[in-house]
């Protein structure tokens, strides 16, 4: 045990001096700063993070190296001397960084390459001597358990069945659960690096890929019971999965997406990507948008494994996780057992946490959300809204003013950037981009394709943003003074107009609210193709005709 580990050997979170971007501070109660180092067959990754008692992980710093321990093994299963030197040097750097950042615990684990090596003890002793760090060699089942622990903290697994897969350089781990309870753990020697060396040349010939897939398929049939696992939610972590998501996001011109976490990939899209990468040279794969050059030589084998797992599970799609063994190790190190979340709970919780961190004005934001959803329920079908739009509008309404946390001036644009760069669980990258843009357009100019944040998006996404921004703009206008003077909205779709009548609270004057909503109704009128009439309690009508512009 290192000196850093001994500081918290009783597991009790303690306030400790830390460094945040060069500044000292104190950890909040119930929060522990820990570091996790994952020594894999292909790469070594470290994450330093603050782990809260509820399981939330806030990354402080990360470091990565690629000594490829699994690629430099001799025929008799010995780790190569040069790769061990590179790996030890990387661990020393990571340990130094973690201690400088004030991590109270540093945990290091080694997976497939070290586990299978005949000279594993030589490597482990070298790390202990040079870095002062004990390395724990994980079994395949322990790897699968850590991956599942991580998924449990970041996905809604409380109901139904789920399979969490982690593909590393040397092995594939599968964890099967039912209603948030682990049922089975499996490990297979199907890592992307290992299979590339066994089956593929640099050209990844189609016939060799077929042979690889046949071998994987045969083994899965023996150990993965199709009846019990078929149709389960499929969650994938590791570089193969994240690179697959990056390739697809690049194809969709999702250049503004800040993370691939939560990306949904259909089985058909996976097969198309795999088919396009076969019979290509390494140089051609290195030029593929979204694909990391460091993974171009082993990506085909990894994708082939995913394809066979999906076929065995009869999965129509998979969900990509950017959290894996390291994050599971962080939770284990901090002695935190994440609880299974019900569908939608992770998303709701992370949206609320972002709002609170940005010191949002809860009464106004919640009120605007209620008004926006009233408009959605009454007018959504008229302007072409789809079922999933309601949740996006709800989240955007709650977060629309968090840009005040930066500055009042252009706060709608600050809201956009804060949402775009946040870690919002339960959202796909495309959903997060949509929510950020809806909040961006709650005021100011209407959405236009020439705007940089919209130009790269698909037309369906731009149309969705316009529809929901139109509703949010009017709802926000009805609380222009942040006084919640409007109790509810009465909305009627007439033959030639949309009529919105605000009902006041306790005889309050709605002069400001009438003005605020009337001047922000242009986009809604344009989308509906008919005038929008805002009717005051006294009967006065403010009419907005499609194409009629008013200054903000």
Rg computed from alpha carbons, rounded to a whole number of angstroms: 26 Å
Number of strands: 17
| Helix-strand makeup class | alpha/beta
Largest sheet, strands/sense/barrel: 6 strands, mixed
CATH arch. level architecture of the largest domain: Orthogonal Bundle
**Poorly predicted residue ranges:** 1-25
Q: What is the straight-line distance between the termini? A: 62 Å
Shape: elongated
Question: Strands, helices and their partners?
Answer:
Blueprint: H1 3-6, E1 17-20, E2 23-26, E3 31-39, E4 44-52, E5 57-65, H2 81-100, E6 105-110, H3 112-116, H4 120-131, E7 135-137, H5 140-154, E8 161-167, E9 172-178, E10 181-188, H6 192-199, H7 206-223, H8 226-229, E11 233-237, H9 239-251, E12 264-266, H10 267-277, H11 282-286, H12 299-313, E13 317-321, H13 325-333, H14 345-357, H15 362-379, H16 389-399, H17 411-420, H18 429-440, H19 452-455, H20 459-477, E14 486-493, E15 498-504, H21 511-518, H22 522-528, E16 532-535, E17 541-544
Parallel strand pairs: 3-6, 6-7, 8-11, 11-13, 15-16
Antiparallel strand pairs: 1-2, 3-4, 4-5, 8-9, 9-10, 12-13, 14-15, 16-17
Helix pairs in contact: 2-4, 5-13, 6-12, 7-12, 9-12, 10-12, 15-16, 15-20, 16-18, 16-20, 17-18, 18-20, 20-21, 20-22
Q: How would you characterize the overall build of this protein?
A:
There is one protein chain. The chain is α/β, with parallel strands linked by helices and 552 residues long. The chain has 3 domains: 3-137, ATPase, nucleotide binding domain (Nucleotidyltransferase, domain 5, 2-Layer Sandwich); 141-333, Exopolyphosphatase. Domain 2 (Nucleotidyltransferase, domain 5), CATH 3.30.420; 345-544, Hypothetical protein af1432, CATH 1.10.3210.10. It is 44% helix and 18% strand. It is built from 22 helices and 17 strands. It has helices spanning 3-6, 81-100, 112-116, 120-131, 140-154, 192-199, 206-223, 226-229, 239-251, 267-277, 282-286, 299-313, 325-333, 345-357, 362-379, 389-399, 411-420, 429-440, 452-455, 459-477, 511-518, 522-528; strands spanning 17-20, 23-26, 31-39, 44-52, 57-65, 105-110, 135-137, 161-167, 172-178, 181-188, 233-237, 264-266, 317-321, 486-493, 498-504, 532-535, 541-544. The strands form 4 sheets. The protein has a 6-stranded mixed beta sheet with strand order 10-9-8-11-13-12, with helices on both faces. Strands 5-4-3-6-7 form a 5-stranded mixed beta sheet, with helices on both faces. Strand 14 and strand 15 form a beta hairpin. Helix 9 packs across helix 12 (299-313), helix 10 (267-277) runs antiparallel to helix 12 (299-313) and helix 17 (411-420) runs antiparallel to helix 18. The longest helix is centred in the first third of the chain and has 20 residues, at 81-100. The radius of gyration is 26 Å and the shape is elongated. The model is unreliable at 1-25 (pLDDT under 50).
């Amino acid at each position: 045990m290192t000196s850093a580990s001994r500081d918290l050997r009783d597991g009790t979170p303690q306030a400790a001096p830390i460094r945040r971007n060069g500044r000292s501070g104190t950890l909040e109660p119930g929060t522990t700063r820990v570091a996790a180092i994952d020594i894999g067959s292909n790469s070594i990754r470290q994450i330093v993070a603050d782990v809260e008692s509820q399981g939330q992980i806030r990354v402080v710093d990360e470091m990565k190296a690629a000594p490829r321990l699994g690629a430099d093994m001799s025929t008799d299963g010995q780790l190569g001397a040069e790769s061990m030197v590179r790996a030890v040097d990387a661990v020393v750097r990571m340990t130094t960084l973690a201690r400088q950042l004030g991590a109270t615990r540093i945990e290091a684990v080694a997976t497939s390459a070290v586990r299978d090596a005949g000279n594993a003890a030589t490597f482990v002793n070298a790390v202990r001597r040079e870095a002062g760090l004990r390395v724990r060699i994980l079994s395949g089942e322990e790897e699968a358990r850590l991956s599942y622990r991580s998924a449990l903290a970041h996905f809604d697994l409380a109901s139904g069945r789920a399979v969490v897969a982690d593909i590393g350089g040397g092995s594939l781990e599968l964890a099967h659960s039912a209603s948030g309870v682990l049922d089975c753990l499996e490990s297979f020697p199907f890592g992307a690096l290992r299979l590339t060396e066994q089956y593929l040349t640099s050209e990844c010939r189609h016939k060799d890929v077929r042979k690889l897939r046949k071998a994987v398929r045969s083994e899965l049939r023996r150990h993965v019971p199709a009846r019990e696992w078929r149709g389960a939610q499929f969650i994938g972590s590791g570089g193969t999965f994240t690179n697959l998501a990056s390739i697809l996001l690049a194809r969709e011109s999702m250049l503004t997406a800040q993370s691939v976490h939560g990306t949904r990939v259909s089985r058909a899209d996976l097969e198309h990507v795999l088919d396009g990468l076969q019979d290509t040279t390494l140089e051609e794969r290195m030029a593929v948008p979204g694909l990391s050059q460091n993974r171009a030589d082993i990506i085909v084998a990894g994708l082939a494994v995913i394809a066979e797992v999906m076929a065995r599970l009869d999965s129509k799609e998979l969900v990509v996780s950017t959290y894996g063994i390291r994050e599971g190790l962080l939770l284990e190190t901090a002695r935190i057992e994440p609880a299974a979340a019900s569908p939608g709970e992770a998303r709701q919780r992370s949206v609320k946490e972002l709002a609170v961190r940005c010191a949002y004005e809860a009464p106004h934001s919640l009120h605007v959300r209620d008004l926006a959803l009233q408009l959605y329920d009454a007018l959504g079908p008229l302007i072409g809204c789809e079922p999933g739009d309601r949740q996006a509008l709800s989240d955007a309404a709650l977060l629309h003013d968090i840009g005040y946390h930066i500055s009042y001036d252009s706060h709608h644009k600050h809201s956009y950037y804060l949402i775009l760069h946040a870690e919002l669980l339960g959202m796909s990258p495309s959903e997060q981009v949509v929510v950020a843009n809806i909040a961006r357009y709650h005021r100011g100019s209407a959405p236009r394709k020439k705007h940089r944040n919209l130009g790269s998006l698909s037309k369906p996404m731009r149309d969705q943003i316009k529809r929901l921004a139109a509703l949010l703009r009017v709802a926000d206008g009805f609380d222009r003074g942040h006084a919640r003077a409007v109790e509810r909205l009465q909305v009627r779709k007439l033959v030639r107009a949309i009529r919105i009548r605000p009902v006041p609270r306790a005889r309050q004057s709605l002069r400001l609210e009438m003005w605020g909503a009337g001047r922000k109704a242009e986009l809604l009128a344009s989308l509906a193709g008919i005038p929008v009439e805002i009717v005051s309690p006294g009967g006065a009508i403010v009419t907005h005709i499609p194409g009629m512009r008013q200054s903000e």
